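Subject: for your reference before the review

Hello V.,

The reviewers asked for a structural picture of the protein, and I figured it would be easier to keep everything in one thread rather than splitting it across files. Below is the amino acid sequence we used in the manuscript, unchanged from the supplementary table.
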Amino acid sequence: MDDQPSDLPDLVPLEAVLITDEVRRRTLRAPNYELESQLHSVVVEALANAPESVLQCLAQEAMRLCNAESAGVSLLNKQDGERTFVWPAVVGEWSRFVGAGTPSDFSPCADVLARGTSLVFCHPERRYPYLKDAVPGIEEAMLAPVFVGSKAVGTVWVIAHRANRHFDSEDLRQLTNLTKFASIAYQVAEREREFQAEFTALTRLRELVTRLLPCTDLKTALEEVLSAIIDTTGADMGNVQLLDPNTQTLHIAAQRGFEQEFLEHFRTVSVESDSACAHALRTARRFISDDVHRSFDPAHRAQAIKAGYVSVQSTPLLSAKGELLGVLSTHYRTTHQFTERDLRILDLYARPAADFIARMRTDEELRQMAANLAQADRRKTEFLALLSHELRNPLAPIQNSLSAVKLAGRSAANFEEMTAMIERQVAHMVRLIDDLLDVSRITQDKLKLKTERVDFVVLVQQAIQAIQPLCDRNGVDIKVELPNSPLWLLADAVRIAQVVGNLLNNACKFSERNGRIDVSLWKDGQTAVLRVKDVGIGINREHLPRIFDLFAQVESAVERSQSGLGIGLSLVKRLTEMHGGTISVDSAGPGQGAEFVVRLPITDEQGDAEHEAYTPNRSPSVPRRVLVVDDNKDSADSLALLLKMLGHEARAVYDGRHGLSLIAEFSPQVAFLDIGMPGLNGYELSRLIRARPHAKSLKLVALTGLGQEEDRQRASEAGFDLHLVKPVTVEALIAVLGCQV
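And here is what came back from the structure prediction:
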């Protein structure tokens, strides 16, 4: 520190302005220990009762002890990013300079701390030209270093302005002794400053939390938190990044002090990147770098240097449950040694920031849940209206046909046409109800697949044959392109047929007259690919992502008379996925048609024979005695009538007790029992019948609207031989009654 700056060559060397040795030889007055003791007592009293004024008191006593004309305390401090000697206490003729200071690298204070001992200067402006502007000028200046432990923190100084005032060895001794009190005073002042800083920080934190409580905007809240932290810790810039749990990346949500280039570079930060925020996120612990020039990869280091910061810390933001929410980072333009207070303040402010983020996310989740519930309620309302519409639609032609038959009799020329119409509408109603039941089973995870080795080509052919009459009536042409060899699947044949049938049914319903459906099936590696493409009403592209949602309806479809319940495509998607497959949809928009592509894995397993669809036994049945027990009188009577028309002797009763009493009297060979009867239900009736020795050979058939697997199992356990779901077709009745009893 003895060397003068190279850009000031005309200044005198340090030794030219030092007179310390000369002052030690001066003995102008005797020690006044009594005054010294009194003044020390004043300083001690200030330490005890008014610690905030102790430095000023110390400067005052130094001036009195040394009979100086100005005195003060210089403390080494960081101000505006630069280290300087600041004068927090000045008395005497220079009292107006309180708060001023001198450079930390070239000043009398710097030279005193460099040598670690008291020094006396004579006309120091000859070496430090900036002192020439200080009025009155300096005749002699005496400075004593202040240490806290081994750390030099500043000086206590006195000044003689008059040419006839000279310091002596006694002044030097007293000023040096006073620095012991200055050390204590410094520590007390530091504690007081820290206390005030803590109090200010806590007060600001309380005000911040109060403002955050009613706040509903995340960006505004985070900017407030960030500003408070930067101002409280003395940082130069900072940012708050939020974690996207899906992509495991950080995104800047609030920032202060950065240029656009930096923001672009750090707009999205991977958790695996070499950055302070990524380190904090990976370890869930604070990361500190006091010099970025020694940290990070070249790309991040270059951005840090461009942004103008040297030190950085990143604190992870954790919810009360320990969930990672984001990172809070502060940056400093100069090397910054993070103190315990800095870290404590960061933790204090990070807590409300994390709590607010968690609250906002919870609020957003609740809003989304409310929106989903509202949408579900709307869809439910629409579904119930559509269900009513869809069930009434087939009832109208059934009612009309029945009325026509009633008026014209069986001899009517169009009798066959009317009965065929009734059969079609009943089949449509059954299909609606079956789809509803299947959706319910899948939703409750109760649908079980009965997988076997099946030929996808055959299933597609059968589905096309089934849909052909509907296409013919609607004037829609089907173009088919199928492979010549089998495509074997390990699948539930009934469910895959349901997938293909629903896609073809949709394509036909939503095609205009004279439209066309293209059906193609091919092998792609180990995948069978089915494409169903139509040139119908098409789908708005914004509706494509939710086309497979349960009860989903698109506007162009809702306006049509056969729009359906919005469950068919949802069922298709779920059944496809249950087979390990995928389904996709595409459409160029309204009026441009739609294309559905199903992909299913091909099996390499070898089967004993090709899949054969179930064909009911149509062999002529032997006339049998049949009992029908159903609490629905119309259902019981109509079934008994149908059985009689098939050549059997049939009786119908309407409750379980009556049915049980008729067993011995009528001795039926087959009994159709409804399950859901009041009083004595079908399960109980079956058990009572099986308990009678003479009824052991009676064939019991459960007749019910309950068709899930557990319903069949329960019927079997109750003693039933067969389980049929209403409505029962004539073919099914023939098959049941044609079997040997």
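For the response letter, the relevant points are probably these. The radius of gyration is 48 Å. The first helix runs from residue 20 to 25.

Happy to draft the paragraph if you're swamped.

O.
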